[in-house]
Amino acid sequence: MKHFIARQPIFDTKGRVYAYELLFRSGLHNYFDCDDQDHAAASVIANSNLLFNLDEMTGSTKAFINCTRRVLLEDLMTTLPRQQAVVEVLEDVEPDDALIAACQRLKQQGYTLALDDFVYHKNYEPLLDLTDIIKVDFLLSDLDEQKRLAQMMIPRGIKMLAEKVETHEVYEQAKEMGYQLFQGYFFAKPVIISRKDIPTNKIQFLRILKDVHAQDVDFKKLALTIQSEVSLSYKLLKLINSAAFALRHKVTSILQALSLLGLREIRSWVSLLSISSMADDKPAELVVSSLIRARMCEQLAQPCKLGDRQADMFLMGLFSLLDVIMSRPIDEILKEITVEEDIVATLTGAEGQLQQVLSLVVATEKGEWEQVSSLAMTLHLEEKAVSTAYMDAVKWAQDIYSL
Questions:
Q1: Domain limits for position 225
Q2: By three-state DSSP, how is residue 206 classified?
Q3: Rounded distance, CA 90 to CA 116, Å?
């Protein structure tokens, strides 16, 4: 079977990534290549060490993996390392004696146990004695139920995970109720602030973005602009001297770096480093997501017959979260820097091929497989191109971010 994977971050109360939930699928055109869902899920779990590297997908954090009844009863999760794998028992699994025994075996071996989309029933009591984490769907449950579950479970030593947290307001509410873990796209929704409230360092990096994307770039002037921000100069020199570029001689000046990279490349890398610096007060995952989107857009340029626009596609993905990082509307930000008109149009909501590529990248990131299937067919992309581009982007983003 051909396999596809997406990942969704799970954060702690300080905005750090605690784990990723890995979402599997056996192909773009249907959810599984056989009629038996248990068998298909079991096959994916049993072979996952052969299909991908857990460290590459999770950055050495924990991996939440959905488990059907058959996966649990046949002890198939034991093929994965107990220090990393979190056994996520799906909500439709009946907690009978056989299932409890299977979960006891996993706990004895040191695995972390989580219950997905939890709704309390007394039948779950034996399972709760083994449970480390409970996931509560914040879209399907009301505020009273969310509070009640937290008050019941936290005293029992169970961590509460708020799932499908889509706004910063809901995130704050969940923290107040005692939830310790959070999953959703609240970090990717901008909290808009006024211009006068923008921190000085972000204004400086926005000026650098403006200069590097000007129509007529003076390399000497640009080098002086970059040098005015010490952290950016350091990061650029560290990056260009890394294994990612494999240059024969060490680069010791910003002007030399600009000359070696060329304008299109330097726009990409200076933009990347500037955005990384601007996001220092936001979850690190925001920068990683920007990098993944940038790399995946770049990787899809060739199969989408946009091979001469790889640098533009890179910037499109990189800038797709710029409104969140700057806490300002994207159309307002883009007025202050010079970017290709169709990139501006795409980032501000215009339809077209570029918008379809960006939507495909975001859908893959979220594991929205029906949307992925539809957009892949529209763009005439092969299944392998989408899967390969995403897997490459995740590994590349983590390597670059570690620098």
A1: 195-402
A2: helix
A3: 5
